[in-house]
Amino acid sequence: MFKRARIAAKSAARRSTFARRVLAALLAASLLPAAASSVEARDPLLAYGARIVGDDARTRIVIDFDREPRFSVHYIANPERIVVDLPATAFGFPAKDLAARGLFKDIRYGKMDEESARIVLTTTGPVKLALAKVQADEAGKGHRLVLDAEMIDKRAFAELVKTQSWSDRTDAAQTTSAIPAPEKAAPGDFVIAVDAGHGGIDTGAIGVDTKTEEKQVTLAFAKALTDRLNKESGIKAFLTREDDEFLSLSQRVLIARQNHAGLFISLHADTLKQKDIRGATVYTISDKASDKLAADLAERENLSDQIAGKETVAEPPEVADILLDLTRRETQAFSISLAESVLNSFKDQVGTINNPHRHAGFRVLQAPDVPSILLEIGFLSNAEDEKLLLDEAWRGKIVGLLTDAVKRYRAAVMANGG
Predict the structure, then answer these.
(1) CA torsion, ordered 170, 171, 173, 175, to nearest 10 deg
(2) Quick one: pLDDT band at residue 13, thresholds 50, 70, 90?
(3) CA distances (Å), 346 to each of 58, 359, 401, in order?
(4) Among 318, 414, 330, 335, which Cα is nearest to 375's?
(5) How confident is the model at residue 167 (pLDDT cuts 50, 70, 90)?
(6) Judging by beta carbons within 10 Å of its beta carbon (0-12, 13-18, 19+), is residue 19 exposed, middle or buried?
(7) Is the bond preceding residue 79 a cis peptide, omega within 30 degrees?
(8) pLDDT digits over 222-245, tens only?
């Protein structure tokens, strides 16, 4: 009898446990829609396919998404571009599937920030989207974005630019407010802004062999340099960007100034048509380029905002002159001193190009009160440089030499009462 009672008790306990599990499952099931929608809100869209067809009169772009995308379209002049803004999106199709053709001479796409992505279509002339819509995939695989572009005249394009609304526009101050100040910066600390060139939709240069993107190379070096500098007493370094995010040139300058940086170091790894040129170069700002190579590089780097589909707001000439004059008078000598310190560190340790200290009108170096340099660590267009740029040990060597250069520069500034 006691045995039967024990069996019955165990059976009841099992039924009770089973009932609790069923109830928990039912409750979980009732919450599934909300949970799923929450996950969906957090996860980026996936653009898993793309194709482009047409000619120089009419061109169609189709992009396949895993679910329905929200989007907005804007037009920018000088040069003519169509900008398609999207929520956070992972672009998973091969780049060749959306290679420019027809009415488009350049197509860029990528991340803008944690919550948004962008497609920038640089056109061959005045163009509008006669059709821009999202439709469900017939096979039930998600949705597709269809963009039909056609030629229009200049007057019609100007009217599109004039009458459109940029309701999602944010200025640099708003964007940079989320950038953290250097951690535990104490009074008297020497604060350094380390700027990883490019990012997000602006990939920068592409490696000649591995096809590595410049934005990845610069971020790796920037993180390593920041970590190394922060091991030095009295020095606090911070990143202008901490992940694969687009920042305009003016935002980078503003971030440095808002955080009271005493130095700004922008890291790059460009490409050149002359594949045999290799080695490091240090650039400082000047209203006149030191040579054609410096002028061409500055022109390309200054197009970063245009690549990302940013409107270029021209400053009045007198304002630009004042800023450049202040830069020259107040900080150019310090920038040159830092450049020379870097090159002294590199001597007999790191290869440099001929005349390794050059200058040109880089917009990212225009902070009027922050000594600034742009360092080309090497060139992704050169196979040997590319190998070094991707070598972790070599990266560590460069970071150590740069840290020594900064320490010497700081000591000289402190000795002169700075």
Answers:
(1) 40
(2) very low
(3) 53, 18, 7
(4) 335
(5) low
(6) exposed
(7) yes
(8) 999 999 999 999 999 999 999 999
Summarised one tens digit per residue, pLDDT across range 100-138 is: 999 999 999 999 988 999 999 999 999 999 999 999 988
Residue where the block lists tokens 């869209």: 45
Q: How many helices (H) and strands (E) does the chain have?
A: 11, 15
The DSSP line for 8-21 is HHHHHHHHHHHHHH
Read off the amino acid at residue 157.
Answer: F
Structure tokens given for 175:
């964007």
CB 105 within 8 A of CB 79: no
Task: State how beta strands 116-123 and 104-113 pair.
Answer: antiparallel
* Number of other residues whose CB lies within 10 A of the CB of residue 360: 25
- Which tokens in the block code for residue 179? 């950038």
Tokens at residue 308, please? 């990302």
Q: What is the C-alpha separation between 165 and 152, in angstroms, rounded?
A: 20
381: tokens are 């267009």
Half-sphere exposure of 226 (CA within 13 A, CB side): 22
DSSP 87-107: ESEEE-S-GGGG---TTEEEE
- pTM score over 0.70: yes
Length of the chain, in residues: 418
To the nearest 5 percent, what fractions of the chain are helix, strand and coil? 40, 25, 35
Question: What is the per-residue pLDDT for 66?
Answer: 95
Say which range, 31-45, 266-280, 336-350, 399-413, has the weakest mean pLDDT: 31-45
The distance in angstroms from the start CA to the end CA of the chain is: 94
Q: How many Å apart are CA 378 and CA 2, to the nearest integer?
A: 84
Q: Which of 262, 295, 294 is nearest to 367 (CA)?
A: 262
Q: Which two tokens stand for residue 283?
A: 């650039």
CA 101 – CA 368 distance, rounded (Å): 42
Read off the tokens for 253: 């300058």
Within 8 A by CB and 6+ apart from 286, the residues are 332, 359, 360, 361
Instruction: List, edge to edge, every strand of the sheet that includes 143-151.
Output: 89-91, 45-54, 58-65, 143-151, 127-136
CB 373 within 8 A of CB 339: yes
H helix or E strand, kind and range, residue 40? helix 2-42
How far, in Å, CA of 343 to CA of 327, rounded?
Answer: 22
Sign of CA dihedral 376, 399, 217, 332: negative
